[in-house]
Structure formats: C-alpha cells, structure tokens
Amino acid sequence: MVKISVEMARGGSMILEATGRCVRSTDGAGAPYNEIDDLQLFWPRKPRDKKSYPVKDSLVKKWSQVEESFWDACENS
Question: Three-state SS for 34?
Fold first, then answer.
C-alpha cells in the first residue's frame, strides 16, 4: 500500500492509500507499454480501524491523475 495525493471531485486534494500492481509488458508486435492492474483507493487508516475503507469512484476528480501518481509511487518504492 502506498500513499498518494489525489484531487477530489468537490475540490482540494487528499492523501489516500492505494493498492494495485504496476506491470511493464510488450504487445504482440514488441512495443512496450505500462499497465496498472487492480488499482483501488482507500481512506487513510486510523489506529483504531481494523480494516481499510474504499473510496467511491465518484469522489475522485480524474482517474488518469490517480494512475500517474500511483505509477510514480511504484517506481520510487
């Protein structure tokens, strides 16, 4: 789980937790491409929380921004 900054639909940005897999692969012709599988966002956990709570898709402004932030976080960790 990595922490990323996400722009929210109602304005502002928040630090949320994200899980997923970053995959570098090639297509049938040998051209490389990057892919993110199973990307999910969760609200930050508090010490008393026993589980993570998912963020609704409608609360995020742009998923493309989320994917870019997640890819950068995966490369840096």
Answer: strand
pTM: 0.81
| Phi, psi values for residue 10, rounded to 5° | -85, 5
- Spell out the domain ranges in the chain: 2-76
- In whole angstroms, give the CA distance from residue 38 to residue 59: 18
CA–CA distance from 22 to each of 16, 31, 40, 73 (Å)? 18, 17, 12, 10
Which amino acid, residue 59? L
Angle at 6 between CA 53 and CA 9, to 5 degrees: 85
In 3D, which of 52, 31, 27, 30 has the Cα closest to residue 42? 52
Per DSSP, helices labelled H in the chain are 63-76
Question: pLDDT tens across 14-41, in order?
Answer: 999 999 998 888 888 888 888 888 999 9
Residue 68 pairs with which residues in a beta bridge?
A: none
